[in-house]
Amino acid sequence: DADVTQTPRNRITKTGKRIMLECSQTKGHDRMYWYRQDPGLGLRLIYYSFDVKDINKGEISDGYSVSRQAQAKFSLSLESAIPNQTALYFCATSDPKGYANYGYTFGSGTRLTVV
Amino acid sequence: QKEVEQDPGPLSVPEGAIVSLNCTYSNSAFQYFMWYRQYSRKGPELLMYTYSSGNKEDGRFTAQVDKSSKYISLFIRDSQPSDSATYLCALSGGSEKLVFGKGTKLTVNP
After folding, report:
1. Cβ burial B83-110 (10 Å sphere, 16+ → b, else e)
2. Which of A3, A45, B1, B5 could form a disulfide with A58 if both were Cys (CB 3.0 to 4.6 A apart)?
3. Spatial separation of the C-alpha atoms in residues A45 and A74, rounded to whole Å
4. DSSP B55
5. CB of B9 within 8 A of CB of B70?
6. CA end-to-end span of chain A
7. Strands (E), chain B
8. What are phi and psi of B22, to 5 degrees?
9. Are the C-beta atoms of A11 and A20 separated by less than 8 Å?
10. Contact criterion met (CB below 8 Å) for B42 and A108
11. Nearest Cα to A63, choosing from A85, A45, A83?
C-alpha cells in the first residue's frame, strides 16, 4: 500500500455540488497538507495541519474547508464546487524531526473536474 | 518579485546530455533546498536535499546552492529517457512550510 493514499483518483462533478477528497497516510507523520496544482501556476497550498487540533489556512483557502479526523486522515471539501476549482489536488505529509532530510511525502493526486 | 522563480521550460535534450535546471529566490531566510521530481499523473517525490550552501552529489544528480547569489541548480549527467519528468525546486526557512517553484518540464529523447 502507498504511504499516502488519496481517494478518489479522478472525479467529475457539477457546479454547485459538495465534494470531499480524502487522504490517509501510514507514515505516522503529524503534519499534513493539501495542495492544488494548475498548469503554469505550480503547487499552491490550500490548508495545512500540524496536528489533529491544529488547522491552518494556506494561500488559497477560499471555497475550501478541511477536517482532520485522526492523525492519519485529512479530508478536503469543496462546499459548492465551481469550474475554476478544476485542478489536480495533492495531499502531503511531513515529519517535523526528519523533514529536512526527507521532505514531504505526496499522494498520487486527485484529478477533479467541475463542469 | 515572487519568492521562487523557476523557468517552466519545456526543456528537450538528447539522451546522454548534461541537464541544468535552476531556480532563483528572493528570501535570504531560506536554508533548506530541495528538488522534487514529478512524473506524469504522479505526485512529486523528493530527489535531492541540501542544507545551506554547497554541493551534494547522488549518482548522476548534483544539487548546488549559492546563497550569495540566491541561486540553486540541479545537474543531471548522462541523462536518460527515464529522467523525463517535471522538476520542482522547493525551499524552506525552517518553518517546514515549503515554497515550491512552478516546475520545469524535461524531456530526454532516445
Report:
1. bbbbbbbbbbeeebebbbbbbbebebee
2. A45
3. 14
4. E
5. no
6. 32
7. 4-6, 11-14, 19-25, 32-38, 45-51, 54-58, 61-66, 71-76, 85-92, 99-100, 104-109
8. -140, 155
9. no
10. yes
11. A85
What is the mean predicted confidence (pLDDT) over B53-68?
A: 93
Quickly tell me which residue has 523528493 as its cell: B46
Q: What pLDDT, in 10s, does the model give residues A92-109? A: 998 876 655 568 999 999
Residues of B with CB under 8 A from a CB of A: 8, 32, 34, 36, 41-46, 49, 51, 88, 90, 92, 96-98, 100-103
Amino acid identity for residue B104 in this structure: T
Nearest to A109 among B43, B46, B49 (CB): B43
pLDDT at residue B2 is higher than 90 = no
Q: Which residue has the cell 535546471?
A: B21
Residue A102's pLDDT is 60
Q: Which three cell numbers stand for residue B95?
A: 518553518
How many whole angstroms separate alpha carbon B51 and alpha carbon B35? 12
